[in-house]
Amino acid sequence: MIRLAAVLHLVVLHTVDGREVYINPNAVTNLQDARQDADPTKRTARGVECIISLSDGKFVTVAEFCETVREQLERQ
């Protein structure tokens, strides 16, 4: 009998209040810088550096810069 195992690699990031959030790199569709000065009508919570869009239509805001997130996603 042959058994195949799928290994799921998750990336650990942090919310602005320091909690860990686990992201499946295969579910990430877009990364967006959360620049607060880019559009004064669009506001994000203080400390949010990157907005991660997921394939299920949800998004996650994290304290890491998008460049750091991108590097971690590419390592997986």
Descriptive overview:
The chain contains one helix and five strands. The mean pLDDT is 89. Strands 3-4-5 form a three-stranded antiparallel sheet, with helices on one face. The protein has a two-stranded antiparallel ribbon with strand order 1-2. 13% of the residues lie in helices and 30% in strands. A hairpin with a 5-residue loop joins strand 1 (11-14) and strand 2 (20-23). The chain is an alpha+beta fold and 76 residues long. The protein has one helix at residues 66-75, and strands at 11-14, 20-23, 28-33, 50-54, 59-62.
Protein topology:
Blueprint: E1 11-14, E2 20-23, E3 28-33, E4 50-54, E5 59-62, H1 66-75
Antiparallel strand pairs: 1-2, 3-4, 4-5
Q: Please identify the structural class as seen in this structure.
A: alpha+beta
Give the overall pLDDT as a whole number.
89
State the order of secondary-structure elements, H for helix, E for strand. EEEEEH
| Number of strand segments | 5
- Total of helices: 1
Unreliable spans are none
Rg, rounded, reads: 15 Å
Biggest sheet: strands side by side, in what order? 3-4-5
Our estimate of the beta-strand percent is: 25-35%
What percent of residues adopt helix (DSSP H or I)?
10-25%
CA-based shape: elongated
Compact overview of the structure:
By secondary structure, the protein is of the alpha+beta class.
Keywords:
13% helix, 76 residues, 5 strands, two-stranded antiparallel ribbon, alpha+beta, elongated
